[in-house]
Amino acid sequence: MKKGKDLKPHIGIFGRRNNGKSSLINTLVNQDVSIVSDSPGTTTDPVKKSFEIFGIGPSIIIDTAGIDDEGALGEKRVKKTLEVIQSIDCAIIVITNNLFGEVEKHLISLLRKHEVPFLIIHNKQDIEPLNEKLSNLIFKTYGIKPISFSTVNPINTDEVITGIKKTIPATAYQEVSLLKGLVKEKDYVLLVTPIDSEAPEARMILPQVMAIRDVLDNNCICIVLKETELEHFFLTSQIRPALVVTDSQAFSKVSKLVPSDIPLTGFSILFARLKGDFNRMIEGAYNIAKLKDGDKVLILESCSHVVSCEDIGRVKIPKLIVNFTGKNLKFLVVSGTDNINEPIENFALVIQCGGCVATRKQVLNRLKPGIDNNIPLTNYGMALAFLNGILTRALEPFQKIDTL
Question: Which of 250, 270, 290 is the last residue of a domain?
Fold first, then answer.
């Protein structure tokens, strides 16, 4: 499943065919957003819908195909359903008729593997009530008390919403500042935003837009300019920014123009702190120097886009790494949630993009196979800072604050 460019909390609905998953979604959002039918297998591909949860805010709910689907086509549907686990912050498992068996247990094992919290709803309570023995068994095994529910007579919808609110991690919906701890109110923050062939026509890229908004949210004063105007700014202005944030591709030039006593970092490094494993990514950047002839480097992009001759992940970073190491290396680029078609152990290094279009959970789940196998990993900004010899400087602003 291709995830959308949406940073809202993601909630996946799972269960066997004809357990009423789509009806549950329609009931929760109070709209007919998912097709319902008495015929098993009506839902084929995962379907997203935005809705508001009081106390959490805008969220994405994902309807999935039955986890017990059969046949060659059914297996493909189940595979797509289970892939959703990598992109969600919380799961709802829908059971009926007091049926809780191996398919549910397997689903829970996958949720736990990816550290996705879940709740269990026994649907169609109007047809067959939840057996107390099964309820107690589930509670004893998983520490979760199933919620009895009926989409035909939804008298306890509030209980389900409360269950979601208690289950979904607060980190999935609480707003976290890119600049937390780096600036204070009324500070000047200077953002360096090169305009090259990869820049979209007549607009800013998402990391730049998010940084501008974050500066404003921190009640700071935002200055935005191209790297070509940076020297003129420091020659003619008396302003001393509390922080300079640059596009990582301009590190080399910008670091020479920004006075050494002014803190400097990159957009992508800010996102490494917000979305990834910050300290592990620092360590991984230094592993670039340890690459050997024949090593494979995996580059992960969170979005799909038109590739240009100046593409940072597919062109610039591989070229810089080869020039820096002098080694004969192989690179594999994987976009979005596309499968990595070889064992993760084959790679000597994983480099993740900033992840601006993904949630923190999605980025961490994407990196989890590498983490589990102790593969060094870093991100675009840290890699570029290291390759330009300024990683130490780019990390200095973070030394006196806790990472997120």
Answer: 270
